[in-house]
Amino acid sequence: MAHPTDEIIRAMHSPTAKDTEIIRDAYDFAEKAHGEEKRKSGEPYIIHPRAIAITLAKLGMDRDTIVAGILHDTIEDTPVKLEEIEKRYGTNVATMVEGVTKLSKLKYRGVERHVESMRRLLVATANDVRVIIIKLADRLHNMETLQYVSEEKRARIALETREVYVPIAERLGMGLLKAQLEDLAFKNLEPEKYKETATFLEEQGQKAKGALDESVKDLRKALAETGIKNFRTESRIKNVHSFSAKLERKDNDIDKVYDIFAVRIIVPTSDDCYKTLGVVHSLWRPIPGRVKDYIANPKPNGYRSIHTTILTPQKIILEVQIRSEDMQKESKFGIASHFAYKDQNVTEKAASLGWALQFIPSLMRVVRGAGAQTAAPLPRWLSELNEAANVFREQKSFQKALKEDFFAERMFVFTPKGDVIDLPVGATPVDFAYAIHSDIGNTMVGAKVNSKLVQLSTPLKNGDIVEINTKKNAHPNKKWIDFAKTSSAKHHIRNTISRIESGQKP
Questions:
Q1: Which of 76, 202, 213, 343 is catalytic?
Q2: Is residue 174 part of a domain?
Q3: Are residue 293 and residue 381 in the same domain, yes or no?
Q4: What total number of domains does the chain contain?
Q5: 25: annotated active-site residue
Q6: Does the predicted TM-score (pTM) go above 0.70?
Q7: Which of 90, 129, 326, 349 is positioned for an S-S bond with 355, CB 3.0–4.6 A?
Q8: Cα(first)–Cα(last) distance of the chain, in Å?
Q9: Strands 317-324, 261-267: pairing kind
Q10: What angle is formed at CA 503 by the lines to CA 501 and CA 506, rounded to 5 degrees?
Q11: b/e map of 228-257 (b: 16 or more CB within 10 Å)?
């Protein structure tokens, strides 16, 4: 008899009978826990965790991650306790569920100076990269169903997706997810521009279809005649946001965008990539200066491929991307592609705090100094991260480096709405108020920390929720300068008091 998890299981890489049993059990448990709860669309809530689990399975994630994806909202939205999840599904799953729950409380509302704080906090909160991957899958489904929420909330979620989640997906090398999130954010934030761009690309694709099909046919024939075997080809049109952004960079000159159309040639090995490049250049005329070897010089997020741009006899400019099967998986799924390995050590390494290293420059210096290499079948950047994680475990220096370079003696506190504010350690409600807006600081009369009234000189702690009380005609007190930690707050206080003393409006 069919079960709602069948699609999840089919999407997994070589699932075992045990995988199927545990995933079905987790689904039934979550469905019962969510009960009659509905999504904004009116559908049963379980539709959402199921969609997340399917995405995670397609990404090649391990069973524990898929189970955590199914259960990710249970401790926040249902009576289920974390202890029960740990007892039924293990510490690994419980830790991930707890991590996703923490991340779900963070919101970004478009204050530009806070965006990097938000990214850093996401990384710091998720000490297991799988938590971030679950959150990305969660965000994808929410973006796909954004039409059911209010216009204001839709705009906030789309902006947060573009400013916070798209860059993280890119840094993790997850090209497919990044493109999907980017297009969905574009569609919601600039619907007219999105529609216009999407229509243009569709029309261009229809016009060029015959010529593209003929070019691919010629290419396949030439590769077969040269003796290159077990290859496959894919055609693609540039995604909507990527094309729009590139067109803008090229002063809206369509003739300067060379990669509207691309053909990917996927071959067994790296050697085959270079042989294929020779075949392509003997078949078509390459455009000078347009050959890029990302196999010899991978991008920082691990992307590897050879790109060349050619002109077909039908006068179509075509980007040809040549890569191996492993490179193709890495290109689409990034760090997630490494969870498909059955070697538990590789999975554990990829999930460890070492993944955060790409965000932490001082730790990269430690790794390069160590000069060690790993033979794990991972992209260069991830190999460096894993090696670093081992170095830190031995030297017990990870937390110190994290504190010095990543936090830089800073802490994260929150508004009642969940916005994250990045402040130096020892900051007070005065600093918090001015970090939000000078008007909030200038009219402040009191503060609550974690729902309790406190003195304005009270040092805040990491994770505090701070609420500022204001009055229209209030103004700063000189004493505030003594317990403000940030130069910005001190500056605003002095300026406002100076204006008041000179008879000006504050």
A1: 76
A2: yes
A3: no
A4: 4
A5: no
A6: no
A7: 129
A8: 72
A9: parallel
A10: 75
A11: beebeeebebbbbbbbbeebeeeeeeeeee
Phi, psi of 460 (to 5 degrees): -85, 160
Residue 98: is it exposed, middle or buried by C-beta count within 10 angstroms (0-12/13-18/19+)?
middle
Beta-carbon count within 10 A of 43 CB: 12
Residue 292: helix, strand or coil by DSSP? strand
- Per the domain annotation, does 94 fall within a domain? yes
336 in any annotated domain: no
Closest CA to 58 of 424, 332, 427, 446: 332
- What pLDDT band is residue 339 in, cutting at 50, 70 and 90? low
Closest CA to 435 of 114, 177, 59, 148: 114
**Single-letter residue type at 452:** K
Choosing from 7, 31, 77, 326, the catalytic residue is 77
Antiparallel, parallel or unpaired: β 317-324 and 306-311: antiparallel
3-state secondary structure of 234: strand
- For this structure, is 28 an active site residue? no
Residue at 307 is within a domain = yes
* 286: β partners: 310
- Tell me the sheet residues that pair with 232: 266
What 8-state DSSP symbol labels residue 472? T
Angstrom distance (rounded) from CA 118 to CA 415: 13
pLDDT tens-digit profile of 139-172?
Answer: 999 999 999 999 988 998 998 888 878 877 887 7
Residue 376: per-residue pLDDT: 28
By the 8 A CB rule, do 201 and 261 touch?
no
β-bridge mates for residue 447, sequence order: 454, 468
Domain endpoint, select from 169, 189, 209: 189
Better-predicted residue by pLDDT, 27 or 174: 27
